[in-house]
Amino acid sequence: MKKVRSLSKEKIDEISALIGASFWDFPYEPNEGGLKPFFPSKSAMTEYMKSFVIAGIESGTFYSTDNGEGYILITDTKGNHPNFRSIVKMARRMKNAVGGWGKLFSFLKQANSGCDIKPLEIQMKKQKKPYVKVEMLIVTEQYQGQGYMRKLMEFAYKMADKNSCPCILDTDAKGKCDRYVHLGMKLVQTRTAAGCKIYDLMYSKEGMN
Fold this sequence. Notes:
It is built from seven helices and seven strands.
């Protein structure tokens, strides 16, 4: 595994398109689909995902397998996350993707508040508990089903173990949730945000609170 310091525009476009497709084309169950209803097109969703890829590269939180078979964006509570400048640039890209500042603010409010249970990340922040968070993960098409998703997640788990804290993530489909459970995570809670189900998962080393 290695930290990605730079990528060509073509490679960033390719990765962003793969991530966008993983949300846009996924066979969601009823009352699922998280992000999709907020975007007018697949290309708009791709542009939104590109904001995360670029911010991850700029902040040093974007990693890849040795030969670029898969990529993962990992943040934590120790300061490893996009800085203010990257966040501003990220917000501008998000705004363009969803169609304006008003729509972006509405989307963020609905996506992060939930209508019944607060997101696990917000709960942990309120309790001042440290964590490592998988923000984004993708395995390139030709390498899917060959164990690279497990390799990426185990890298995140090692980071969490090193920091003596849990690793968390959220996902917008039961099918995706089941994959993460298979790879060692535990489903902590299911909540509703923007009218869709969101699954909050956690990995923690045995015996860790």
